[in-house]
């Protein structure tokens, strides 16, 4: 049975599986209409059909229904997607990623790499102001990155930074002892983002950011935990140059106010969309995609995703401190069955955390373990497992998390493991098993990373992994990936990392999950992004 942490009632396995089979859509009376609209695009492409309906209009309040609430307001110390989605409208980075995950300017208008001197020099855009009216200066960048290198969960990625100089108000020089492309990739990584804030902000707020201030198109107004987060348009926002792409380019806030509401139940979230309680719903279930397409007045924004689901092994305690038990689980898994149920067939099997369409993908990443139930049973026998209880920790914030856990439970019971599913509320999941590593098995999903170092280092290096994995051989490879300057050589190294990951099995990649969002037809300029981040700049309302 599935135990829900923070929820009084248990979910019966038989009932859940029954619902998985019978549930085919949101609502019984689906209407066919010539007015139905949908917006689907490939990774990196921006559909034009939803951007040319009318001239942009300024004003109005837009409400977004999210699957999970924020956990904190300090992006320097957060690794949670539900924190980043609203707050990356408030705070920005020195450089960022475009639609295709390439590095582009943001607060810096240009940069120069000196590979011999091992320096990267950034020239800041002038006239950019924070929400407190202070002009962005080099001292703010140095303060922000020094703080990030001290306090961020991702601080190990910046180990190659020896020092930061500010020769004038608009120049920042980073002195490195590692590869500059690794450094740039770390700067633009939106996971636990290295956002720029005014110098001294955290100290003014008792050591941690409780009122975020940035340079973004929207300003933080308030957060009523569990109810709503409110952002307001920043009238003095100065956008970057070039067409809007990814997090960068010409961004403009047309909306007076944006409200983010946590609605964890996907059915309730869809009902809120239908009744116009919310204007945009993110984390739409795959099973509801066709219903949205056929519903007058609603638009589906869908794109293939770079997000990937994973199963982590808790290696701090039995039984998965035993490599034979980890291998047994890997051979027991039928990934296609997980894709069919957890994503309603709209996702793809993931052989590795590196997406196949990226430059970093190699034969090592394509090599996957194929299901072999008999071999899995033999490995369980060799491991000396005697029916001890095993729990899969998962979250109820994302429907595909819980469905994946239930499918895994069945597959692992088929090889003789005594498995239960423990379902956590989102905040408890993040502060508990996800960050403490105190679990047998844990499933969740990871958002895209521009550089494979950011995927592998965080989860595999002994200095940053949560689950107890510690391999000197892996550490050496990961450290080489940072220090090596030749890109082709780095690609070879990360192929070796994937091969060692396949051997040691601290985690297993499961599936790539699609981005599916929906909005009212009067919401204009909105497009889904394969990186999985809703962007509400350049969006306006055209209510009749």
Structural description of this entry:
The chain is of the alpha/beta class. The protein has two domains: 239 residues, 3-Layer(aba) Sandwich (D-Maltodextrin-Binding Protein, domain 2), CATH 3.40.190.10; 207 residues, Dipeptide-binding Protein, Domain 3 (Dipeptide-binding Protein, domain 3, Roll), CATH 3.10.105. Helix content is 29%, strand content 22%. The chain is built from 16 helices and 21 strands. Strands 1, 2, 3, 10, 11, 12, 13, 14, 15, 16, 17, 18 and 19 form a 13-stranded mixed sheet that branches. It has a four-stranded antiparallel sheet with strand order 6-7-9-8, with helices on one face. β4 and β5 form a beta hairpin. α8 runs antiparallel to α11, α9 packs antiparallel against α12 and α14 runs antiparallel to α15. The longest helix has 18 residues. Pfam families: SBP_bac_5.
Helices and strands, with pairings:
Elements: E1 2-5, H1 13-22, E2 37-40, E3 61-66, H2 81-87, E4 95-97, E5 103-105, E6 108-114, E7 119-124, H3 138-151, E8 161-168, E9 171-176, H4 180-188, H5 201-204, E10 218-224, E11 228-233, E12 257-262, H6 266-274, E13 280-281, H7 289-293, E14 298-313, H8 323-332, H9 335-342, E15 348-349, H10 363-366, H11 373-383, E16 390-395, H12 399-413, E17 419-424, H13 426-436, E18 441-446, H14 452-460, H15 472-483, H16 487-504, E19 507-520, E20 523-524, E21 540-541
Parallel strand pairs: 1-17, 2-14, 3-12, 3-13, 16-17, 16-18
Antiparallel strand pairs: 4-5, 6-7, 7-9, 8-9, 10-11, 11-12, 13-19, 14-18, 14-19, 15-19, 20-21
Helix pairs in contact: 8-11, 9-12, 14-15, 15-16
């Amino acid at each position: 049975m599935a135990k829900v942490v923070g929820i009084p009632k248990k979910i019966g396995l038989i009932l859940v599986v029954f619902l998985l089979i019978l549930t085919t859509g949101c609502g019984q009376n689906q209407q066919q209409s010539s007015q139905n609209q949908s917006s689907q695009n490939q990774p990196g492409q921006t559909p034009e059909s939803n951007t040319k309906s009318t001239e942009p209009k300024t004003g109005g309040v837009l409400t977004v229904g999210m699957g999970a609430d924020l956990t904190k307001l300090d992006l320097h110390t957060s690794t949670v997607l539900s924190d980043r989605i609203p707050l990356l409208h408030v705070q920005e980075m020195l450089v960022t990623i475009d639609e295709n995950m390439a590095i582009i300017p943001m607060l810096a208008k240009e940069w120069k790499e000196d590979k011999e001197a091992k320096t990267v020099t950034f020239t800041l855009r002038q006239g950019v102001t924070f929400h407190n009216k202070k002009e962005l200066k080099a001292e703010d960048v140095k303060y922000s990155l020094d703080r990030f290198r001290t306090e961020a969960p991702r601080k190990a990625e910046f180990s190659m930074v020896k020092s930061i100089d500010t020769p004038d108000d608009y120049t920042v020089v980073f002195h490195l002892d590692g590869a500059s492309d690794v450094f740039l990739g770390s700067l633009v990584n939106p996971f636990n983002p290295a956002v720029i804030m005014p110098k001294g902000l955290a100290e003014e707020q008792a050591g941690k950011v409780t009122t975020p201030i940035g340079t973004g198109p929207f300003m933080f107004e308030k957060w009523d935990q569990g109810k709503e987060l409110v952002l307001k348009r920043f009238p003095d926002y100065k956008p970057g140059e070039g067409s809007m792409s990814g997090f960068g380019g010409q961004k403009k806030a047309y909306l007076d106010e944006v409200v983010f509401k946590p609605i964890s139940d996907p059915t309730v979230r869809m009902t809120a969309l239908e009744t116009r309680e919310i204007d945009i719903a993110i984390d739409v279930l795959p099973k509801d995609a066709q219903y949205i397409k056929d519903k007058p007045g609603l638009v589906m924004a869908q794109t293939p995703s770079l997000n990937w689901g994973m199963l982590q092994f808790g290696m701090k305690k039995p039984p998965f401190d035993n490599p034979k038990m980890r291998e047994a689980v890997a051979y027991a898994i039928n990934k296609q069955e997980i894709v069919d149920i957890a994503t309603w067939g709209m996702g793809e099997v993931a052989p590795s955390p590196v997406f196949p369409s990226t430059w970093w993908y190699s034969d090592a990443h394509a090599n996957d373990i194929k299901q072999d139930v008999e071999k899995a049973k033999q490995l369980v026998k060799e491991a000396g497992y005697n029916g001890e209880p095993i729990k899969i920790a998962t979250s109820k914030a994302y429907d595909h998390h819980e469905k994946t856990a239930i499918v895994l439970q069945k597959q692992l019971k088929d090889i003789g493991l005594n498995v239960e599913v423990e379902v956590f509320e989102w905040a408890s999941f993040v502060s508990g098993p996800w960050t403490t590593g105190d679990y047998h098995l844990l499933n969740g999903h990871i958002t895209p990373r521009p550089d494979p170092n950011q995927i592998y280092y965080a989860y595999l290096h002994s200095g940053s992994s949560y689950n107890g994995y510690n391999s000197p051989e892996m550490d050496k490879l990961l450290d080489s990936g940072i220090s090596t300057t030749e890109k082709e050589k780095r690609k070879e190294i990360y192929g070796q990392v994937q091969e060692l990951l396949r051997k040691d099995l601290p985690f297993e990649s499961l599936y790539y999950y699609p981005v599916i969002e929906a909005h009212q037809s009067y919401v204009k300029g909105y497009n889904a992004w394969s990186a999985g981040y809703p962007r509400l700049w350049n969006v306006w309302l055209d209510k009749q």
